[in-house]
Design a protein that fits this description.
Elements lengths: L27 H18 L1 H7 L6 E3 L9 E6 L11 E13 L3 E4 L18 E2 L1 E7 L5 E7 H14 L20 E4 L1
Parallel strand pairs: 4-8
Antiparallel strand pairs: 1-2, 2-3, 3-6, 4-5, 6-7
Length: about 190
């Protein structure tokens, strides 16, 4: 089981490396890693499990955050309404790639957090508001998906991790909440 102990924090050089593509078919070990990463996210969102194991909640995790420099990410974004728990997206993505994106940018009103960053970094993180993404699943099937708003932002945050980029790299240093007029601010 993955816990916070397994997650490396800012300052660790692996977080600044460009991670390596996986060769298909992926190994049994890589498949298990992907499953464990997705399970971590689910656990982190479960109040009882999160409290028991001291997990901080996340909706995305990239293998480099576990000091594994591979292009593997997991995302688990819960549905908005409570009760019926159909996630918006729940996936392990092998070699994810943004093949096109909107001109329009978007950012989260409350800024972004990261499991590898143990401090609050205030500011808007401008990203593409819509993306078209390809990735392989754990069985080697190719997927092509269009995402917008929050899910698109989460994917871009995770793809940044496999390229050695941290969310605060995108924040305007002098004016953290200054963004272009055409950037959509979403809550
Ligand atoms: C508990 C149970 C307020 C502050 C609002 C919490 C289940 C911030 C937002 C969660 C913020 C769940 C999140 C991300 C932000 C803030 C990530 C709470 C977990 C909201 C996810 C990767 C950025 C993703 C919206 C500094 C660990 N996640 N909130 N950003 N949630 N969560 N990011 N921003 N301000 N980070 O953090 O997983 S993209 Cl689901
Ligand atoms: Ni992160």
């Amino acid at each position: 089981m993955i816990t916070m102990e397994d997650i490396i924090r800012e300052g660790h050089p692996t977080l600044r490396m460009v991670a390596k593509e996986l060769t298909l078919p992926i190994s049994e070990e890589e498949k298990q890693l992907g499953k464990d990463m997705l399970q971590f996210l689910k656990n982190s969102q479960d109040p009882e499990i999160a409290e028991k194991y001291n997990l901080r909640a996340g909706v995305g995790l990239a293998a480099p955050q576990l000091d594994i420099s591979k292009r593997l990410v997991a995302v688990h974004i819960p549905g908005i309404e409570e009760g019926i728990d159909e996630p918006i997206i729940s996936a392990v993505m092998v070699n994810p790639k943004i093949i096109s994106h909107s001109v329009q940018s978007a950012c989260l009103t409350e800024g972004e957090g990261c499991l590898s960053v143990d401090r609050e970094v205030p500011g808007y993180v401008p990203r593409h508001s819509r993306i078209t993404l390809t990735y392989f699943d754990l069985e080697g099937e190719l997927h092509k998906t269009r995402l917008k708003n929050y899910p698109a932002i989460v994917i871009q945050h995770e793809i940044d991790h496999i390229n050695g980029i941290m969310f605060y790299d995108h924040i305007n240093k002098e004016h953290p909440f200054k963004i272009d007029d055409d950037v959509k601010v979403i809550s």
